[in-house]
Amino acid sequence: MELLRANELIYGRLLPVEEPHLIERYNKALTAFGLKPTELEKFDIDRTGFSPQIAEELDDPHYLDPNQVNRRFVILTPAQADLPVVHTAFSNTSQLVYEFFSKNSRAIDALTIKDVIYGEIEDSVSRVDDIEDLLSINQVEFRVLSAEDVLGKASELATLVDRLKQEPDAWRDNKMLERMVELAKVTGDIRENALVPDQVIFRHNAFWTSHFGGLYVFVDKDMTTVISDPAAPGFRRSRPWQVSYLSIRDADRVFRFLASTGRIELPRASWIETSDYLEHRAEMAIGALIRDAEPNVDPGKFDRVWLQTWIHGHAELINRDGTFPFLNAAKREIAHLGQLKIDEVFPQHRFLVIRAKPDHPDAWLTNRLISDFVPSDFVSRYVFNKQGFYKDYEGFGEAWRRHVVNTLKTTYLKDKEAFRARLYGLTD
Prior knowledge:
Layout lengths: L1 H5 L8 E3 L2 H13 L10 E3 L6 H7 L13 E4 L17 H11 L1 H10 L2 E6 L8 H5 L3 E8 L3 H17 L7 H14 L13 E3 L3 E3 L5 E5 L4 E5 L14 E5 L3 H10 L3 E2 L3 H7 L1 H17 L10 H10 L1 H7 L1 H15 L9 H4 L4 E2 L6 H11 L4 H7 L1 H9 L3 H13 L5 H9 L4
Parallel strand pairs: 9-10
Antiparallel strand pairs: 1-2, 3-4, 4-5, 5-6, 7-8, 8-9, 11-12
């Protein structure tokens, strides 16, 4: 993974923490979690406060996520809101934490001047043993604490202020007044500083989770759909009138679910011809064939002439695989008819020519699911499915790893927003 780190393709855009007072505050949160304080003089954190360096020091990549549910968080600064989340068991953790920052920005701004904020994102379950446990999570609550108990002191001061206003003789209570002064030295003027978060409960909607080898949950008005390996505990076991269970190996049923619920764009000239989507898929497909057929080949010599020569020389292999010929035929049909007769397409191939509907709330999650059916496209895997990408990457040889890194640097990383807009129609 060192090559990925060096090129900021893993643990990139994190926030360095090196000021002694911030390290001291972080250690207070670790101690509160029952963990050993760090001895590092510098480390990086993501939006949730997770640090890859501290994970290595503790020899525990799940130190903020011990049961892969009820995720812990550590907030040192409001600047964390703009960071990625690099380690999580749930795909929507990043969005939930961002919403917490957004809804409570005044309190977070004020609290982090004096203190560290930490706690847990509490679900309705303490551990996940089967699918039903996951489906029972309808909302999450941020249980918020602070090392110096600024939150508790602000609450106590607010109560005393109310008493002072409402009880005629309260101003005669010197002990109470002295306590108010003592509290105000810590909290400041609570009339100006909003120290208590305004919103701590958030909806838990569609998501992917790493549990049971990877599982998707999509939520519609009258039905919740689970897509996973049928071997997952609880698969098709309960609530058939509320929950539909689809095998992730059943390409036909998964495609029909995405199409019937309006989550995908079918292959039409209106977006296919302006995005170079099929050309991108074809390039990825040929690259995967070359990697498997000639694992020791140097990808550095991949140019148009070399690739054309390789394609002509391996026609039988390419035709047997079928992906490249299908994409060429699809491109011709779309150019001629303006669309592709998708029902006539082999189910597995359908995922090569669709993308998530960009304006659908589940667009990123849907593109992630699509990428599971097109593992040859390592670029899409990296954009939407980093856990899957990193797993694939570990199986690549050194030469191919360098090729993957160089491709991502010269395509996606060069201009992420423009790349996502052109290929996937996404504007954020």
